[in-house]
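Hi support team,

I'm filing this because I wasn't sure whether my run with NDP finished correctly. The job status page said complete, but I'd like someone to confirm that the output block is well-formed before I use it downstream. Pasting the exact inputs I used:
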Amino acid sequence: MISIQNQIVFITGASSGIGAACAKIFAKGGAKLILAARRLEKLDRLANELVETKSIASGNEIYLLELDVRDRPQVESAITALPDAWKSIDILINNAGLSRGLDKLHEGNFQDWEEMIDTNVKGLLYMTRAIVPGMVNRGRGHVVNIGSIAGRQAYPKGNVYCASKAAVRAISEGLKQDLLGTPVRVTEIEPGLVETEFSNVRFHGDAEKAKNVYQGLTPLTADDVADVVYFCATRAPHVNISEVLLVPTDQASATLVHRKE
Ligand code: NDP
Ligand code: 8X3
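And here is everything the job wrote out:
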């Protein structure tokens, strides 16, 4: 196991769910955190909590970025404008992502499609393109992409979300190949059902529908996923965990779950 102490960890989508849980576990390990999302007030609250709970030594160990990963010029200028002390990013966690809608493809909503593809695929690419060259030049780095079980197996009405996560899988594999010969590592984490704001966002704020997704089963928590991300990031430098599929015990595949009556 390697220490995460003083490593600079950039987490996209840190305002909620898996990203926020990653912030907490990496803070406890002594990392310096760059936390990015569109909702700056939620990042502020998380940063205060990390300082108050002494998970992090001081506010100086956290850098907050109001960032929409879909906006390429914004991504590029945010990375370029990082203060010198924050430029040498060691770990990039490409976590920002979302699903929108659960509709048959031929009845799908264009805006939902564009939001998913722009965030889950293009946003992840923009972040990777902006940060990985520095990792290659410095001869150290690790990219952790949050994919999904949905990237391995499509499910009814999941169509475009599943396609976006299949793209994350292919991009992760391609990046690993392209970085061969450098010390930069690439990991893709593919969770099954995790109870976060995910379903609430998918159903455009319909809390009842969101709750039903996890009805009768014990889903993963964001902390369960963050724990695995942390495990991957703390292996010895010669160890690259390329892919991890983690599901609740109540889930066997993207379409097969066990629910109590
Ligand atoms: P949440 O909705 O709780 O968190 C999503 C995060 O992504 C939020 O912090 C949100 O921040 C951020 N985000 C969304 N769009 C953008 C954007 N354009 N720019 C910057 N940040 C953005 O869901 P999860 O924690 O569950 O999701 C995290 C990742 O995990 C996603 O990639 C998701 O696809 C994946 N995943 C989730 C699973 C689940 O069952 N929950 C299972 C498998 C994978 P803000 O709105 O403030 O910008
Ligand atoms: C999130 C898991 O099965 O809801 O990627 O698509 S699922």
